[in-house]
Write a structure and sequence with these properties.
Elements: E1 7-13, H1 20-28, E2 33-40, H2 47-52, E3 61-65, H3 72-82, E4 87-90, E5 96-97, H4 102-106, E6 114-117, E7 120-123, E8 132-133, E9 143-145, H5 147-153, E10 171-173, H6 174-179, H7 192-202, E11 207-210, E12 215-219, H8 230-244, H9 251-278, H10 282-288, H11 295-319
Parallel strand pairs: 1-2, 1-4, 2-3, 6-11, 7-12
Antiparallel strand pairs: 4-10, 5-12, 6-10, 7-8, 9-11
């Protein structure tokens, strides 16, 4: 491996003592990895001790401890500042790499700024027996990803298999990030990857997606990525307005951003409707239906589902009485 293809793996971690050792060990195992930087986001468990426990003596592992919990964007930016390798890769603390992930990815390094592989998704309780990729057989060779395609992939659509490119964990060329002053938006705790990749694409990043090479995304029912507040959703929605203001976007690009904005707004208004109903605030509940299409239809469909579920439960209790 040439020094120009050396990799820094950055691992933000918060209360990840059960999984971070697996993540760190999988990164240290790869010969292309020059440094592994774990940023502990003010954990209250033994995350740091667990990470240290798998150090291989190569002095490639470094640990940074934040004084207060600040979210994944802050942790990643801190790790980027601490790292030096020409390529940067992200690894979530509950995920891991399969051996040999990087060699086929780096074969694209001469012509790419971001290199991502379709990732495996596996349940925590059945890692060895089941895996599912975002794209599967539909992705059989490396392809370049454009801005509109990327944004559209993150728009939730009923009846469509989830294939959000916001989930990818690419290798990123440090020179491109530095030249474009690209860092994660620290006010985002939800969708920070989506916003970061979209901004990179808007600034001309050459982004390539390959078939699965060995990033394993572990799906956990209590994962922090599945927990978000109303404010988190609002910030994610509103970041599309900021992205739309970037120079050089086509009308197709901006149409994709509008579709993504509407998709997130549907989820946001549903949460606001639930809160308004709980607090018996009729005016606030009705205000959620005054949003632009497709929000009202989405809210009605969600309400219909809730009615069906509750009716089914009531019917079940009656028939078993």
């Amino acid at each position: 491996m040439s020094d120009k293809n050396a990799i820094a793996i950055i691992i933000p971690a918060y209360n990840a003592s059960a999984t971070v050792a697996r993540a760190v060990a999988s990164a240290l195992r790869e010969p292309e990895v020059q440094e592994v930087i774990v940023v502990d986001d003010a954990s209250t468990d033994d995350t740091i001790a667990a990470a240290v426990s798998v150090s291989d003596g190569s002095k490639r592992l470094r640990l940074v401890a934040l004084n207060k919990n600040s979210g994944p964007s802050v942790a990643r930016n801190r790790a980027m500042a601490e790292s030096t390798a020409p390529w940067i890769g992200i690894l979530d603390a509950d995920d891991f790499f399969m051996p040999g992930r990087f060699k086929p990815m780096l074969a694209l390094a001469d012509n790419a700024d971001f290199i991502a592989d379709d990732l495996w998704q596996v349940p925590e309780n059945n890692i060895g027996a089941f895996k599912h990729s975002l794209y599967g057989d539909s992705l059989d060779k490396p392809c370049r990803v454009g801005f509109a395609e990327f944004v559209h992939s993150n728009v939730t659509q009923a009846g469509r298999e989830r294939g959000e490119l916001g989930f990818i964990k690419p290798l990123m060329r440090r020179r491109f990030l530095d030249n474009n002053q690209l860092r994660y938006q620290e006010f985002l705790r939800l969708g920070e990857d989506y916003e970061f990749y979209a901004r990179a694409l808007a600034q001309g990043a050459r982004v390539f997606l390959t078939p699965e090479r060995g990033y394993v995304s572990v799906m956990r029912p209590n994962s922090l990525s599945g927990q978000h507040s109303i404010d988190d959703l609002r910030r994610l929605r509103d970041c599309d307005d900021s992205l739309s203001a970037l120079a050089g976007l086509s009308e197709q690009d901006r149409a994709a951003l509008r579709a993504h904005y509407a998709s997130v707004d549907c989820r946001l208004q549903w949460r606001l409707l639930i809160e308004a109903v709980k607090q018996r605030k009729l005016a606030e509940a009705l205000a959620t239906f005054q949003r632009q299409h497709p929000v009202p239809l989405y809210l009605l469909s969600q309400l219909a589902q809730q009615v069906a579920v509750r009716t089914g439960k009531m019917f079940g209790r009656v028939t078993h009485a």
